[in-house]
Write a structure and sequence with these properties.
Rossmann fold; 441 residues; 8-stranded parallel β-sheet; 34% helix; alpha/beta
Amino acid sequence: MLLMYSIWMKKTHLTDTQFINLELSNSILRGLNEAGYDQCTPIQDRSLPIALRDRDVAGQAQTGTGKTASFLLATFQRLLNDKSETKKYPRAIILAPTRELAIQIHKDALLLGKYLNFNMALIYGGTDYQKQQKIVQGNVDIMIATPGRLIDFYRKKDFSLDNIQVMVLDEADRMFDLGFIKDIRYLLNRMPSPEKRLNLLFSATLSFKVSELAYEHMNQPVMVKIESATMTADAVNEVAFCPANEQKIPLLLGLIQTHNPVRSIIFVNTKRSAEKLESFLAANGHKVALLSGDVPQDKRQRLLADFQENRVTIMIATDVAARGLHIPDVSHVFNFDLPQDVEDYVHRIGRTARFGASGEAISFICEEYAYSMPDIEAYIGHKIPVQRMTEELLPEIIKPAARPRQPRKPTPNRRTQDTRIRNPRTKAAQKSAKPAGSEIS
């Protein structure tokens, strides 16, 4: 049975509830205080008192509202409450759909758990296989992982799931989108039964599929929904322009020049579009990071670090980056290509206006993707105002130098090759032909 708590999001992103008034240990409070957190966001205010009493929680809230801290603090406190003389490992598992999100959760866990004596492992695919394998074979309190790599180690008997006290599933809706749900069920079915562990599930949307998963693998979870009057964050200023295809790049450069964004993400739909845009921005004096699905993990981490530390202030991204990137101070999101999935629009613009800040979301309704806008507006429940393009917003731009063509490899002259005929019909005709000079004169 799912219990329901539902509130409307306040204009401010904080509540009057202070962490010091919750049932949190001094070592946790010390980490929170040093990180600069003293008041709860609505999702923390509603979910933490429940989870700290060892009740399961299925939480829904918009991206950037503090869900990560909600489940980390509850996980920390549950493990601190374990007074067993002999600890068996691992004790908690936090599952995330993407490497970027797992990395960010691990980073937040180290920050908030600075004064806790917990061993925390970060497990994800694409890199450091032997290094990660050695870590999971040790005494790990909390594993923060993507499903695929974790299952790989489990099947090799590198660790056991028999002693899990806390199970966290973050961005559960995204797990379904990425096809991970069979992997999730595989892991959950090998943990202790739901009533023997604390189960925390968080998601931007609690769809029927996610709620069904909660009912099946959790112990009578309390459903906490933090709803907003609008689908998108109130602090995001949404506008759109209607450029022709050849006007999109000049318009983007004009808007960057006009707005001078502190840090911006430009979303495109294809890798080809991303590479073309990167070359134009570079030719016009902008240093950018390009994040797409096939970027190797080591390079991906370098690009994200450059972006987070302001060595690069513009990132071009495909929708692989629309979820799981918790980057502060993104002032502008540009939808250079309108997304073809309406939910991706919400996730994209959720990269700005995080934790109560304001932000700009600027979309291009171009010839190729204009058909997406009516569906987006129907989904978010409001019209996006269209602004007029002026000459100032369409500057002269420098075109990138043409890339030198790679010389073609020389191909053999077919006339000099073996001229044996490979057409079966012609072969048959050859066989039936009489030898030269055999005719009777």
